[in-house]
């Protein structure tokens, strides 16, 4: 099937037949037989390997297996024996796939269950025997080279603006971490605060030029043009997003200040006062950091400032297999140390690193609330499998940021020999970044 | 000679006979002969290898060699031919040693000359042939293991409190980078602002406990006890400094809140709400980062916050050979990437990295001004060689921070699984950190 022609008629997703990829045995008939004793043993073993989370298992015949030595806070239901075997063989991938297919279900708050799992597994995996570590290991992420990147990005970002509009903020369609300057902010305020905060960190002034690598629906570029009077070249390889961004810029009379360019970031040319990239680095892949480093080096004027905003890790680790395979092909959230490799390669001077991980947990919670509110519309747009998969993705992400297995870094840097530096960070905080109302 | 017994009578330094270490040929008689043509060629070659800085050379017979294609901004005087040969053979070490011995002198602002040299050499060294790189390479720094560390530290920090009192701030004898929250602050204000800023970054509250690794003259511990009502265990292996710190704490009635401990940081025990280390990491040596990481891991309560303040680099690089051999034995300023190695090892969550390098350039400038004002007293206390060596060290350090070859990092982190995080950094900037007057 030609994806491009298909996309013109209706939004597509490629999530339905994932069970082939996992070799997940299909189960078409309802199972009510008694579980074998070895199946009960497998459940208990699985829970011990996961660090004994407070989870009750309910099996296909409604038999329940309680957690060891503590009350259950959540119940996980398995619809059939083959689901159990899939879970034991490859829990990273199967938990999400089975949930998506409705063959695994959860009673209790899904993000809280996932956070609990992340925390106990994080402790427990240090004691896993080597064979188990090998069996359950995540596979290397997909390539993010120039020929694969477009397909990776289309898989996620071209799901349709109508879909994202259902649950992202109404202000600027920001699909990255918001900045909750005050806890009571609305998502819209917090997303605009994020845009403002980034402009401040870049110390933008009227007349400056900015290049943006990976511009999403173009909200940051428009914010910069509108509020800071700068000229922006904004790159993105997602066709849907660029079309939306261009239309918005024209509507708002900002099209003379912004050029949205449907092209790979690797083709950025020219020199700018600022380089900014929000939520792209995690799709770049660490094999491409050196190239990106050199690109920033040549794109930034001698006294320019660069900012990279990216999901990251406390230490190098592969992306969760299910997220990487089903949701974000090729994703790799780097540690600060890995981002420093990028900076060191070009002798950049790192001025400021900030970790906003709890802001992302909160952002995702609001997204999930809105997503849940729009479930029937989304299921109509795609199907039940898709809706459940995305629910798992949002819940798992909330959990990962809360449990500290994902981080959100903003890194600000300059050329190594520039002395035109912001001397303190006080100017970032002189007045609120969020608008009083949206 | 037994150093300990010697130290009791008068402050000592071990800088006088450094020419043996360098194998610097001594020159006792004044040389006035004409330079040979190959000596003039060597000067020109040396300048080209250094990236053609705007320096005029005046040789022993007052012959002058102008810089190529530009007016001279500085003059370097060489007193004898052997000084030239030493400079060509090992410029990193010889420049400082010859200056200390008065066999190399400078007309023009010494920090500006050094900055100019740092900048041109930084560019030029990328084109050095391999043999030159090998010839001029810095040697590995001295060991900083438990048996060498005391001697390394004594070499520098036990020069005598009377010496440091002549040119450090009068407020808290801070021998680390000040925080120039506003450019017009006095050194005293800026040093107190630094102490306040660190307390804020640690989010100290009354009744908390703090452990400090490498406490200098104890000023931070006293500031914390006085202004934040915390209890501090402060470690240092410099006898002179600990004695001073204890006396000050008693005088100020803070001795019930602070325990100054004359011991290696490796012997820290107990668990604390905060771990802080200001200006120690650059003496720790990267071979000991793993051990330090594990120490912080076990010393920090589950929701504690740690702060490391250290001189650093944009990328891994050995310390300037002269500084490491003559001034700071064993010093190694790490890159953020190397500091991240320490953090990743214990799965720490890095919240905040700030680079204050221009603050250190300014701090050092004020120190040098005061040092220059006290030159005759210092020369009387030690000798001319010592005074000139320290002048070179201060000037070279100003230059290194201005040229971006040194950085000053403050890194704030927590355990990876703590969610008791400061959510934003606004609280650091709500009111001035510096006192209105000192």
From TrEMBL, chains A, B:
**Would the keyword rRNA-binding turn up in this protein's UniProt record?**
no
Q: Which InterPro entries match?
A: CFA/CMAS, CMAS, DUF7884
What sections of the sequence does the record tag as coiled-coil?
none
Q: Which domain of life is it from?
A: Bacteria
- Please note every region of biased composition (Polar residues): 11-30
Could you list this entry's UniProt keywords, alphabetically sorted: Lipid metabolism, Methyltransferase, S-adenosyl-L-methionine, Transferase
Keyword S-adenosyl-L-methionine attached: yes
Region annotation (Disordered) maps to 1-32
Pfam families per the record? CMAS, DUF7884
Q: Which residues form the DUF7884 domain?
A: 44-120
For this chain, the family text in UniProt reads: Belongs to the CFA/CMAS family.
Entry protein name: Cyclopropane-fatty-acyl-phospholipid synthase family protein
Organism, as annotated: Marinobacter salexigens
């Amino acid at each position: 099937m030609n994806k491009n022609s298909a996309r013109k008629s209706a939004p597509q997703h490629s999530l339905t037949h994932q069970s082939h990829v996992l070799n997940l045995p299909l189960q078409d008939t309802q199972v009510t037989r008694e579980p074998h004793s070895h199946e009960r043993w497998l459940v208990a073993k699985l829970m011990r390997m996961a660090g004994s989370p407070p989870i009750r298992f309910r099996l296909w015949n409604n038999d329940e297996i309680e957690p060891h030595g503590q009350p259950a806070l959540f119940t996980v239901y398995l619809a059939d024996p083959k689901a159990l075997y899939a879970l034991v063989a490859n829990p990273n991938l199967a938990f999400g796939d089975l949930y998506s297919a409705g063959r695994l279900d959860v009673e209790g708050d899904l993000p809280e269950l996932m956070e609990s799992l992340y925390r106990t597994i994080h402790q427990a995996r240090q004691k896993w025997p080597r064979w188990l570590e090998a069996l359950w290991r995540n596979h290397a992420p997909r390539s993010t080279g120039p020929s694969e990147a477009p397909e990776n990005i289309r898989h996620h970002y071209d799901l349709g603006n109508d879909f994202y509009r259902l649950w992202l903020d109404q202000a600027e369609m920001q699909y990255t971490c918001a900045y909750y300057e005050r806890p009571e902010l609305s998502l819209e305020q917090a997303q605009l605060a994020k845009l403002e905060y980034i402009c401040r960190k870049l110390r933008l002034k009227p007349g400056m030029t900015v290049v943006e690598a990976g511009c999403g629906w173009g909200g940051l570029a428009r914010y910069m043009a509108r509020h800071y009077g700068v000229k922006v070249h904004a790159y993105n390889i997602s066709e849907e997003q660029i079309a939306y961004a261009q239309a918005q810029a024209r509507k708002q009379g900002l099209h003379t200040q912004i050029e949205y360019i449907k092209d790979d970031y690797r083709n950025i040319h020219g020199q700018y006062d600022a380089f900014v990239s929000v939520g792209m680095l995690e799709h770049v892949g660490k094999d491409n950091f050196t190239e990106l480093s050199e690109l920033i080096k040549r794109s930034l004027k001698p006294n320019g400032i660069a900012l990279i905003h990216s999901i990251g890790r406390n230490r190098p680790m592969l992306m969760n297999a299910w997220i990487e395979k089903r949701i974000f092909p090729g994703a790799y959230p780097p540690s600060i140390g890995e981002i420093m490799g990028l900076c060191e390669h070009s002798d950049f001077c790192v001025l400021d690193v900030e970790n906003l991980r709890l802001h992302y947990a909160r952002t995702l919670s609001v997204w999930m609330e809105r997503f849940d509110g729009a479930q029937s519309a989304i299921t109509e747009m795609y199907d039940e499998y898709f809706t459940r998969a995305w629910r798992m993705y949002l819940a798992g992400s909330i959990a990962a940021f809360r449990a500290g297995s994902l981080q959100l870094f903003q890194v600000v840097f300059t050329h190594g020999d520039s002395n035109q530096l912001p001397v303190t960070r006080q100017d970032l905080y002189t007045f609120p970044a969020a608008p009083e109302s949206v």
